[in-house]
Amino acid sequence: MVNYTVADLLQTTAASLAFALFLLPTGYLVGAASDCFGFRQRSASEKLLFSAAFSVAVVPIIAVLAGRFLSYTGALIIFLILLLVAAAHAIRKLPSFRFSQVERSTAIVAAMMLAWFVLVLLSTADLQFGNRLYVSYLTYDHAIRVPFVEAATRSVPPLNPFYGLEKVLLRYFYYWYVVCALPAKIFGLSARSCFNASTLWSCLALASLLPLFLKHFFGERVNLRRKSVIAIALLAVTGLDLIPYGILCACYHKFVPDMEWWDTSQVTSWLGSLLWVPHHVASMIACMAGLLMISTIEEEMEPRRRAWAVAIAGAAFASAAGLSLYVTFTFALFAILWSVGALMQKKLKSFFSYAVAGAISLLLSWPFLSDLLPKHAAGAAGTASSVASQFAFFAIRDNQYITLLLMKAGIESPLALTLLKLPALLLNFLLEFGFFAVIALIMWRRDRTAAKPLGRQRQMARTLFIVCLLAMSFLQSNATGSNDLGFRGILVVQFVLLLWAAPIVDEFFFAAPSVRSSRWTKITLAATMLLGMAATAWQLMALRVYLPLADSGKIVRSERFLGSPTGYASRTYCMRELYSRLDRLTTPAVRVQYNPVRDEVLLAQLYSTRQEVGGDQSCGSGFGGDGQKCREVLPYFAVLFNRPEIVRTWDVNSLCDAYSISVLVATDADPVWQDPASWVWQRSALVSTPEARAVTCGSTPKALAPR
């Protein structure tokens, strides 16, 4: 019997190693070819940092364009060539190596990354105890993202895996899923393990970018290694979320599974973002890598260096757009403002360089952006999500619990509540940023009292911080039902705060005794830092232990995606076993249909690797497809699984033939399961477990040939 915990650990480990073939050589060759920041003369450790950070910045656009125009085989050949060239160049330049020569700071960072790797494994693997299987609460999001990776293994651009009424392109930023599909295709690894491993590599790239920024953007030279270690360690620090979260749990007498949910416009912790949405973090990395390149552009600059900086920045921005439109949109507001400022200052060469970088990013992104145009929407105007959804609109960022407190205090006037949103916003940011809010205040005070004007890069950082913070304070999005623009665009602000924090922490806690610092400021920094670390630790633990605690009856469940209150752990095990066996018995061309209107739909999405006709109650039409067509068809599938007294008279084969369905999957939570005369029991089982059953359907099940 397969132990799924061991299988997950081994597969994610293998995928993590496989990613190195794609997310190191390309960045290395970019540095070696351009010699930006004197790459060729840098140490091996700095070359490794550059390779990791800039691979994440440029690999997505290369992978997508190669996959789109050359097929996956062509894309893999390109990356194989890049790997061989990079390996040959690196080996030729590699000096003799001894472990005794490894710097202490390098060993510390390596230990931190190893700890993050172990944390990724423990946070994402299914925990199996006998015939009971416990998923992480991350499944709530990963169940959507893993099928996107699976779809990317089948074609580029991917088709919407939840909408099978016709072939419809995935109307979503899918570049990260294409990158995840590369090791899946070449090594036969599961899409889920590759997505899990990508959380490790997004963190590696983020950690690699921090020392590069400290050195080449902020000009830090004294104690650079120590400041770099501090910056990476601060990824474990978040805001004062533990305070409002604890109050929320106490007031409502329930265990909230994710600490961030106390705020409807959350500022997610770094480790939370990396685990939940690594593609948004990757987009931020690409934006910042592009910023690092254009920060080198000056009026009097060698044309060759300028051309390389513009080209690399353009490619990075193109990657960022396909990784996350929310993050890229936020960064673009700054980029436009900074470019206009350069024009007003008559820095024409700099302005022209910025404009060319933008033009390159638009040119490379055009195939992706054209897919989002209405002509490719396949009736998207009829989708439920498009009726009232907006990508961005003006609205003050607020918190529903603070608003409720104001209303309970007797303030009910809409005008008064709106006016009070501004001071409430300051309180909200103070709680969300915590330690980093103190850092922002210190930087604001120092900038005011600075004896000389800030350098160009520091002006860039301050402008980036102010523009993006204001944008995230007064712009919102409801395209997905949540303020995803506010959730993800704030990553840019968080990155600037992280870079500001490292030298300040070094000054207050590690500098020589001769450096005087305010005692109360030091106490405040220490207290908020410790509370921020405790909040992150609690968040990671809660995501992992919530479902086992709920299954044991020690807490009352608040989620519904696992289905019925009892027996869900054994059903989860049966569903994973069923879909695993189904994968071995069917080809990727098979279409599988489960009950799209039951609570367990997310688990089916997580474990199924096949195209669905109706993946959920809207057929996933929010990601592409005609919502009206789905509303016309979905009732048939709802009856198929939930009304045994009606479906008993149907010609089920005709229904399956009409939508090219080869396999139907039912669980003991579906009403048809309870009817001995239903199709569940009257058809031969392709796969059967105690609590789930897959049966063939359709008059010509020709796609069921074994792999």
Task: Write out key terms for the chains shown.
63% helix, 2 domains, 707 residues, mainly alpha, two-stranded antiparallel ribbon
What can you see in these coordinates?
The protein has 707 residues and is mainly alpha-helical. Helix 4 runs antiparallel to helix 7 and helix 5 crosses helix 7 (191-216). The strands form three sheets. It has a four-stranded mixed β-sheet. Strands 1-2 form a two-stranded antiparallel ribbon. A two-stranded antiparallel ribbon has the order 3-4. The protein has 28 helices and eight strands. The chain folds into two domains: 4-376 and 434-539, no CATH class; 568-704. The protein has helices spanning 4-19, 25-34, 44-93, 104-124, 139-154, 175-187, 191-216, 224-233, 242-252, 270-276, 278-294, 303-323, 325-344, 348-371, 384-388, 400-408, 414-419, 421-433, 435-449, 456-474, 484-509, 519-552, 568-585, 601-607, 627-642, 644-647, 652-658, 679-682; strands at 127-129, 132-134, 393-394, 475-476, 592-593, 663-667, 685-689, 692-696. The model is unreliable at 375-387 (pLDDT under 50).
